[in-house]
């Protein structure tokens, strides 16, 4: 058994934090966590990289302070070709990311929760290039239930 | 040496890579309230969820009939399968009722999909995808039951409880309103209903201890018009059916997670409400728990309850009354027919809610008894902590949400029946927002189950029965060709003689049916369309088929071209 505090050490000891030591691929969501930047005009931006031979997004968990539009810079520093299929209202956004390339994606995510994205191309699926975008905040006041505040977990 | 990055450009819509996208003709521009009122005078179209405001699921089309139905076959198939991650990946199902307007079909899928298709060929015209959080609380699967159309717009709810209005020609979003709180466990699955200049939608989430509600929005602007809660606050009418102390009412359920019907003469919406919460632990909510498990009549303009009829007072079996309220006339009376999860067929005077008749429509009912005058006597229910209790029907009901139909030519109702039991063991738990709030451990039987389609007249007399091997978990459709179409969990799609129940035709669709078939015509050729895709809350309505393969095909049948 392990505690949460020991998680990072044990991940390293077992080889769960790299490619092809414990698992074959990279364990989902075992990478870094990052926050989107909110600008004075309300825009949100973030940069997500694919580092060489890691087959993981960096950060692998991107946190937005609230729902809305976000501009992503996507950088592939790897020596292989990948892609990204990202959640966005209207349609999912697709971008092809050849070796050593840089692209952009503008997403609209309208509410709180955890959204997944991935690199749905041959050789990548299941290997670790599955990332999460977590949107913080609450729904608008008019959408909330008319009742006293309730306990949460 | 620094090497410049290759410019990968800007990410594009995935649909641009589908090989099939464009603009639909402006067929929805002229769809008004007045046209929807007379929807059955346009038999070539299916303009609203049930085909008409009366909820009958009847198509007057008769090109396909009892004589020639054996000759129909697939005209086209739309495969909706998608790549990438989806919310609740294991629980998606294709549960919609497609709408058709002058040759264009509008249909929703799981996970926030809406498509416009050429109704004659199946070619995709446009698609809309709403981004759905993976962790939104979906009590009964990642599903959606259909769209509404009017005044150039397509309306759909999303799993994260938004109501969106799309341009019917392009699929681009025109407005978006949030009407539920995903952090409280709310979601949305119903097909919207257009009434006058309102678009009306209900909330889902009854297994999470929310307070169910129905909302109306102006269909042009998206402005919120009214909200009607289905559990009263302290001091409001009906609040004496909840404990006077504590907050049971605030977590009481009663969600409107299906689409209602409407009578323009009474100006009343007829909506079924969901189970009380917690589902199986009634001790924490003593009383009848209005307006859960009820047929509720709501003034369409004011959004206020005018009368109610409660089918299962103080429910402890998860017997939502969300099923359709089918409007019909009989012996000069304006009536409403409702097949409830509790196994009884209720006929009610729709002007005032007065009970006319109650008839059991499933062979095995042992949870309790309802007398002809409506007196309810429970007999088997999870009462003592930790003590398993088996009862019929199980929590999916003798008929789940999937719809019955009424044929005005045969004057018969057709009901898909599930004869399955379950065991519930009461396990009390504290309420916490967003955590399932059942109050029991529940296991639905995987053996000793059966199903059938039964035909009933307005007096509650069973006229015929077509027996299936498995419980019937899909809506039925009846037509002017004297037919009843009914899908099975094993993938078979069947045509029955509406007068006799004789089995006339079947086709193996490759995945179980859990949707609502419709019929329409284009250029004089009649089609029957059925979304096929097993899944959703299968552990609740048919766990014996939990391991069956998913599907995501819209199958459309017709006679061979002349």
UniProtKB/TrEMBL annotation, chain A:
One Pfam family hit: MSMEG_3727_PQQ-assoc
Name of this protein: MSMEG_3727 family PQQ-associated protein
Species the sequence originates in: Pseudonocardia benzenivorans
UniProtKB/TrEMBL annotation, chain B:
Cofactor: pyrroloquinoline quinone
CDD domains reported for this sequence: PQQ_ADH_I (cd10277)
One GO cellular component term: membrane
Record-linked SMART domains: PQQ (SM00564)
Alphabetical keyword list: Metal-binding, Oxidoreductase
Annotated GO MF terms: calcium ion binding; oxidoreductase activity, acting on CH-OH group of donors
Domain Pyrrolo-quinoline quinone repeat: 46-356, 473-528
Signal as UniProt keyword: no
Family recorded in the similarity comment: Belongs to the bacterial PQQ dehydrogenase family.
Classification via NCBIfam families: PQQ_enz_alc_DH
Name of the molecule in the record: PQQ-dependent dehydrogenase, methanol/ethanol family
């Amino acid at each position: 058994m392990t505690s949460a505090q020991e998680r990072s050490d044990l991940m390293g000891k077992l080889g769960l934090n790299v490619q092809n030591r414990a698992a074959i691929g990279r364990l989902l969501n075992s990478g870094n966590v990052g926050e989107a930047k909110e600008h004075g005009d309300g825009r949100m931006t973030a940069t997500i990289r694919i580092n060489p031979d890691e087959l993981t997004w960096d950060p692998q968990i991107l946190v937005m302070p609230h729902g809305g539009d976000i501009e992503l810079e996507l950088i592939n520093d790897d020596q292989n070709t990948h892609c990204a299929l990202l959640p966005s209202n209207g349609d999912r956004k697709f971008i092809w990311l050849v070796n050593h390339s840089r692209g952009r994606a503008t997403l609209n995510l309208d509410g709180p929760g955890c959204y997944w994205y991935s690199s749905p191309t041959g050789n990548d699926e299941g290997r670790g290039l599955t990332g999460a975008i977590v949107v913080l905040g609450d729904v608008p006041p008019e959408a909330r239930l008319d009742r006293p505040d309730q306990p949460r977990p | 040496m620094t090497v410049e990055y290759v410019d990968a450009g800007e990410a594009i819509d995935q649909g641009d890579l589908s090989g099939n996208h464009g603009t639909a003709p402006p067929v929805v521009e002229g769809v008004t309230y007045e046209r929807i009122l007379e929807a059955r005078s346009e038999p070539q179209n299916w303009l609203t969820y049930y085909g008409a405001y009366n909820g009958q699921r009847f198509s007057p089309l008769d090109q396909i009939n009892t004589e020639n139905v054996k000759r129909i076959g697939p005209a086209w198939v739309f495969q909706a399968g998608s790549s990438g991650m989806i919310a609740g990946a294991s629980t998606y199902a294709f549960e919609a009722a497609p709408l058709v307007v002058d040759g264009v079909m509008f249909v929703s899928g799981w996970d926030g999909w809406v498509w416009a298709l050429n109704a004659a060929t199946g070619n995709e015209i446009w698609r809309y995808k709403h981004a759905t959080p993976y962790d939104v609380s979906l009590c009964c699967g990642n599903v959606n039951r259909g769209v509404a159309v009017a005044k150039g717009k397509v309306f759909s709810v999303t799993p994260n409880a938004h109501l969106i209005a799309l341009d019917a020609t392009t699929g681009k979003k025109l407005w978006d309103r949030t009407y539920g709180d995903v952090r409280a466990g709310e979601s949305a699955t119903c097909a919207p209903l257009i009434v006058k200049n309102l678009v009306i939608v209900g909330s889902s989430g009854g297994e999470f201890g929310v307070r169910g509600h129905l909302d109306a929005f102006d269909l042009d602007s998206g402005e919120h018009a009214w909200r009607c809660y289905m559990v009263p606050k302290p001091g409001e009418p009906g609040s004496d059916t909840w404990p006077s102390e504590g907050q049971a009412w605030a977590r009481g359920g009663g969600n409107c997670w299906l689409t209602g019907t409407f009578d323009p003469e009474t100006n009343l919406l007829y909506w079924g409400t969901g189970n009380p919460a917690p589902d199986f632990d009634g001790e924490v909510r003593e009383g009848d728990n209005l307006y859960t498990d009820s047929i509720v009549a709501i003034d369409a303009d004011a959004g206020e309850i005018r009368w109610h009829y409660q089918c299962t007072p103080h429910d402890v079996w998860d017997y939502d009354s969300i099923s359709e309220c089918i409007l019909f006339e009989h012996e000069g009376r304006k009536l409403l027919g409702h097949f409830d999860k509790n196994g009884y067929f209720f006929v009610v005077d729709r002007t005032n809610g007065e009970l006319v008749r109650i008839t059991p429509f499933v062979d095995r009912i042992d949870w309790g008894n309802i007398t002809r005058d409506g007196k309810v006597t429970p007999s088997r229910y999870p009462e003592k902590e930790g003590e398993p209790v088996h009862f019929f029907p199980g929590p999916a009901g003798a008929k789940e949400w999937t719809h019955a139909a009424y044929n005005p030519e045969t004057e018969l109702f057709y009901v898909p029946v599930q004869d399955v039991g379950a065991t519930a063991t009461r396990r009390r738990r504290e309420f916490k927002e967003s955590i399932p709030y059942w109050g029991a451990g529940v296991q639905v039987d995987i053996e000793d189950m059966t199903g059938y389609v039964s035909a009933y007249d307005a007096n509650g007399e069973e006229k015929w029965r077509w027996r299936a091997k498995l419980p019937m978990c899909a809506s039925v459709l009846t037509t002017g060709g004297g037919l009843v179409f009914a899908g099975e969990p094993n993938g078979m799609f069947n045509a029955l003689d509406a007068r006799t129940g004789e089995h006339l035709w079947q086709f193996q669709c490759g995945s179980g049916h859990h949707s609502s078939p419709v019929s329409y015509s284009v250029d004089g050729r009649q089609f029957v369309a059925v979304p096929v895709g097993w899944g959703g809350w299968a552990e609740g309505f048919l766990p014996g088929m939990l391991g069956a393969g998913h599907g995501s095909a819209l199958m459309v049948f017709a006679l061979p071209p002349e």
